[in-house]
Amino acid sequence: MQSQPAASVPALADLSPACFAMVMATGIVSLAARMHGWRAAAVALFGLNIVAWLAFGMLTALRATRYPGRFFGDLIDHRRGPGFFTTVAGTAVLGSQFATFGLPAPAAFGLGAVAAVLWFVLTYAIFTAFTIKEDKPTLDQGITGGWLLAVVATQSLAVLGAILAARSAQPWKLELNFFALSMWLWGGMLYIWMMSLIFYRYTFFRFAPSDLAPPYWINMGAMAISTLAGSLLIVNAPDAPFLQALLPFLKGFTILYWATGTWWIPMLVLLAVWRYVYKRFPLRYDPLYWGAVFPLGMYSAATHEMILALQLDFLSWVPPLFLGVAVLAWTTALLGLGRHLLRLRRTA
User: Fold this and answer.
1) Cβ within 8 Å of residue 216, ≥6 positions away
2) Which residue range is the domain that position 198 belongs to?
3) Which phi-psi region, left, alpha or beta, contains residue 321 (left: φ > 0; alpha: ψ -120 to 50)?
4) CA distances in angstroms from 247 to 240, 281, 309, listed in the order given
């Protein structure tokens, strides 16, 4: 009877900062399923996502209060700190679900406000800490694909802002579209900064199988969500004069983001084969694997919206294909989570 609490203590203390990646992945698979008419699956995943968001929110709050040293130590850690941006992206994606499923607007606006506050606090807390801390890792030890979660968090606010703008009256429509445009532009600039460092680390430092963590799929996912935000802004252009004036720019950069994300897919598949087949790296459950599910679902949703925004009907075969892959990956990750929880229970 005394061993169970003792076993539960390290489980909470070691809770991954990227735990909200499951919320991100479940949310975008739900939204993509709804786009393709899978109404029952979309609603079921929506309900599950609400439960997951509440559960991880409570666990994160408990960890911050019971183990503040571990919590804030992770916040300023170069490898683990960016994982906190999943909190922002998960909250914004859930807000997009509330808005898209036609539920009362205050819920979506409330989640958007929470996500925006979290984005502001985490962005300036994490990057200020990385700047002023005295002991810093070298580039090859400090940066990972997980850093691009900061881009995903930024673009998730752009997506939610554009969705809310389409469902709001003036003058909120103009203000929300301007907010979405600003976040979209900043997210694109942030990707350029970070991807330059990540690509440099890829090509000029030794790369071990253990270095290829699942969040490297965010290389593609960050571009996919940028494509989705750009497509939504194009659709909203008739309601905002400044978007209308920028329409050629919006269309060009949206295709640029989609093409960049598409380029990453074969590269990431090859690296995964090298890691798991050639190097025989063990495949064990890790919360970070949800960060690999999210880009697949996002690529499906983003391509679907881009086709509608730019009339690219010849790409219509792409979204259902990647939705199927995303559902398979989501199911695999869920089974892995179930086995992991059973293992923890046996240990307790």
Assistant:
1) 144, 145, 268, 271
2) 3-347
3) alpha
4) 11, 46, 11
In angstroms, the first-to-last Cα distance of the chain is: 10
Q: How many domains does the chain have?
A: 1
- For the segment 66-83, the average pLDDT, to the nearest whole number, is 91
Reported pTM: 0.91
> What residue type is 266 in one-letter code?
P
CA 340 to chain centre: 22
Residues 88, 209, 147: CA angle, nearest 5 degrees: 20
Of residues 290, 321, 292, 291, the one with CA closest to residue 304? 321
CA distance 105 to 298: 23
pLDDT value at residue 7? 41
Angle at 11 between CA 10 and CA 12, to 5 degrees: 90
Average model confidence (pLDDT) across the chain: 89
Separation in Å, CA 261 to CA 88, 311, 324: 21, 19, 18
Q: Are the C-beta atoms of residues 177 and 243 closer than 8 Å to each other?
A: yes
Token pair belonging to 344: 């923890």
Identify which has the larger pLDDT, 155 or 337. Answer: 155
- The CATH number of whichever domain residue 142 belongs to comes to 1.50.10.150
pLDDT at 1 exceeding the cut of 50: no
As a whole number of angstroms, the distance between CA 348 and CA 344 comes to 6
**Which pLDDT tens digit goes with each residue over 18-51?**
889 999 999 999 999 999 999 999 999 999 999 9
* Rounded Cα gap, residues 91 and 289, in angstroms: 19
Determine the pLDDT at residue 348: 61
CB atoms within 10 A of CB 252: 11
**What's the confidence (pLDDT) of residue 4?**
44
